[in-house]
Design a protein that fits this description.
The complex is a heterodimer of chains A (212) and B (417).
Chain A: E1 5-9, H1 13-23, E2 28-33, H2 36-46, E3 50-53, H3 61-71, E4 77-82, H4 87-95, E5 100-103, H5 108-119, E6 124-125, H6 127-138, H7 147-150, H8 154-164, H9 169-176, H10 180-196, H11 200-211
Chain B: H1 2-23, H2 48-56, H3 60-74, H4 76-87, H5 102-121, H6 132-147, H7 150-166, H8 168-190, H9 195-257, H10 262-281, H11 291-306, E1 310-315, H12 322-341, E2 347-353, E3 357-364, H13 379-391, E4 394-400, E5 406-413
Classes of the chains: A alpha/beta (212), B alpha+beta (417).
């Protein structure tokens, strides 16, 4: 298996070099970018497998990068990496097309795992993101418009709860007597719902959490 | 550290700059002819007569008598006084303002009243009576003017002057109307039978005044709005600066002092991070009434006490009841155990409020233990966690094995909200 090619996008130079050092040889860091413009250019230029994307950046932030790159039909995969815990940011960047969200306090080994997972087309949920999703999908009183997209299955809920409790995918698989692959399938399915559901509650919920 | 300091300095510089910009219009750089100013010392009403006397090289008494006489005759003295009051800036005066010489003022008032009485007794036409309301109104508005703080008044004046300069034609037309109207009004007043032209001219006066005043009032309004916005911005900036100073800068200093104590540095950094996050992102919740806020507070306190990061995820929320408070105490004990004895580098806490049940999980990836081997007299798990939950109508389950970490699960049935 060839090493995953990674591009680091973050406006803090210190943080970029820190991530580079933490990742070591486990993945191949092919470049860095420090703002929206250079990120879009570098993605077109270097064609990385995974882009580690900061949420807050000059020039529109991670969401602007997602909009411009994915809008042009690129298949590159994004993993959002941020210090922000704001629901709006987390939900916003996932709805923008990122395949995962982890906070910057994540350890190097966990980050490598997350990058591999995203490169394989799976989704990566931090405990906090799982909590947000459970909260957002539970908070609606209104009946779902599209039942397939607008609500979580019992199994998906269980998986998300375990993620929120701090379980790794392997531990979840053991706990629920299913394979890791099945856990990944469930998480990817939740990601799809999160991205495609037209429920206004999602964005409204995220905004309300900030405003309350 | 540097970053923090720069931010703080920036705020200071910005504040300074604002102040400078605010006062700039008051101190134009081009040389200006000595302006009429109203002295504070020796004034009787507002120092207008003194100011005018200085300018004309006369004794203030002469001018005071002139104002009184003109006021008694047709009220125009009061109006002139009012106008001068409004457009003459007060002389800067430091320290306690000297009191007015009320006896002198009373003397002038007596002269005025005497003249008025004389005029009335001799049946001389008291042409001034018609102008009295205007004079009274003028003085009233000037008292209001006087109440406004000097800064704001200065700004009003500067806006007015600017307005007048910008709209010369308009101001001139308005003035012409006012003058024509005033003359007409007085002329018509002398011929009482012809009330109609009087009304017409009154309207002309009002129109003229409106013409002059409208842009001025609009400018004033805009100015007030701008001032208000600026004040809000400044207050916010001050609040941010104060917060950064009290929290972040303070912590950074502490971290520098504790560089050799890795654990303490970690604790300080985590604690500051949490505090800042709460300030930036968390809705303001009261830890005495909200379950989620209570979980976060307990975790924060134990994290601070033991120096082990405690990651909290909350789903849903509900008001805190006595049972849930007991549950918080059990959760606290579970966190203490995990942070103190497990050796795990991080503790995960997950709290979920469902319509009929609240669950809290406290998990570590530390040493784990064998439940049966815990001595019966150890209060921690049996009493503080399991016993407490059961006494309050809830339940607790502990899952652990050596090398597999520990997870404490607390459940409590609640009334459906």
């Amino acid at each position: 298996m060839s090493a995953v090619r990674v591009l680091i996008v973050d406006d803090h130079r210190l943080f970029r070099s820190g991530v580079r050092a933490e990742l070591g040889d486990s993945v191949e860091v092919i470049g860095e970018a420090e703002d929206v413009e250079s990120a879009v250019a570098a993605i077109a230029d270097l064609r990385p497998d995974v882009v580690l994307l900061d949420v807050h950046m000059p020039g529109g932030g991670g969401q602007e990068v997602l909009r411009r790159v994915l809008g042009s039909g690129s298949q590159v995969r994004f993993l959002a990496l941020s210090v922000s815990d704001a629901a709006e940011d987390v939900i916003g960047v996932i709805r923008g097309g990122a395949r995962g969200y982890v906070t910057k306090t994540i350890s190097g080994r966990e980050l490598t795992d997350a990058i591999r997972r995203v490169a394989d087309g799976d989704a990566v949920f931090s405990p906090r993101l799982a909590g947000f999703v459970l909260d957002a999908f539970a908070s609606s009183e209104a009946p779902p418009i599209d039942p397939e997209l607008d609500s979580l299955t019992q199994r998906e809920r269980e998986v998300l709860r375990l993620i929120a409790r701090g379980y790794a995918y392997k531990e979840i698989a053991k706990e629920l007597f299913i394979s890791v692959k099945t856990v990944e399938t469930h998480v990817s399915s939740v990601l799809r719902k999160l991205q495609l559901s037209n429920r206004h509650e999602l964005s409204r919920w995220a905004t309300a959490r900030r405003l309350v | 550290m540097r970053r923090g300091v720069v931010t703080c300095d920036d705020a200071g510089v910005m504040a300074d700059r604002t102040t400078i910009r605010d006062t700039a219009p008051l101190a134009p750089e081009e040389p200006v002819p000595p302006r009429l100013t109203r002295p504070v010392e020796g004034r009787l009403v507002a120092g207008v007569a003194q100011a005018a006397a200085t300018q004309l090289g006369l004794d203030p008494v002469v001018l005071r008598l002139a104002f009184v006489l003109l006021t008694v005759l047709d009220g125009i003295g009061a109006v002139a006084y009012a106008a001068l009051w409004m457009f003459t800036p007060r002389e800067p005066y430091e320290g306690r303002e000297p009191a007015r010489d009320w006896s002198q003022l009373a003397a002038y008032a007596a002269i005025g009243l005497a003249l008025l009485a004389l005029g009335w007794l001799t049946g001389a036409s008291a042409g001034g009576i018609g102008a009295w309301p205007i004079a009274v109104g003028g003085i009233g508005s000037l008292i209001l003017w006087q109440q406004a703080d000097p800064d704001r008044r200065q700004r009003w004046v500067s806006t007015t002057v600017g307005q007048v300069r910008r709209n010369r034609v308009r101001t001139f037309a308005g003035l012409v109307l006012v003058v024509v109207g005033a003359i007409g009004f007085l002329a018509a007043n002398n011929e009482l039978g012809k009330a109609r032209p009087g009304i017409v001219f009154t309207l002309v006066v009002v129109g003229g005044v409106a013409l002059i005043a409208a842009p001025w009032l609009a400018g004033l309004w805009k100015e007030l709005q701008r001032e208000r916005r600026e004040r809000i911005r400044q207050e916010e900036r001050a609040e941010v600066a104060a917060h950064v100073h009290d929290s972040v800068l303070h912590t950074l200093t502490l971290i520098q002092r504790n560089v050799h104590d890795a654990r303490e540095v970690m604790r300080l950094a985590r604690s500051q991070e949490r505090e800042l996050r709460n300030w930036l992102y968390q809705p303001k919740q009261d830890a005495d009434i909200s379950l989620a806020a209570a979980v976060r507070r307990v975790a924060a306190e134990e994290e601070d006490a033991h120096g082990v990061p405690i990651e909290v995820v909350c789903v849903g929320d509900r008001p805190l009841t006595p049972e849930l408070s007991a549950m918080m105490q059990a959760a606290r004990q579970a966190m203490v155990n995990a942070a103190k004895y497990s050796g795990s580098s991080v503790v995960s806490v997950y709290a979920e409020a469902e319509p009929e049940e609240v669950t809290v999980f406290v998990r570590d990836r530390g040493a784990g233990f064998v439940m049966e081997e815990v001595p019966a007299d150890r209060m921690g798990i049996r009493q503080s966690i399991i016993g407490r939950m059961e006494r309050n109508g809830g339940g607790a389950r502990v899952r652990t094995a050596p090398g597999e970490g520990t997870e404490v699960m607390l459940t409590m049935k609640v009334e459906k909200t």
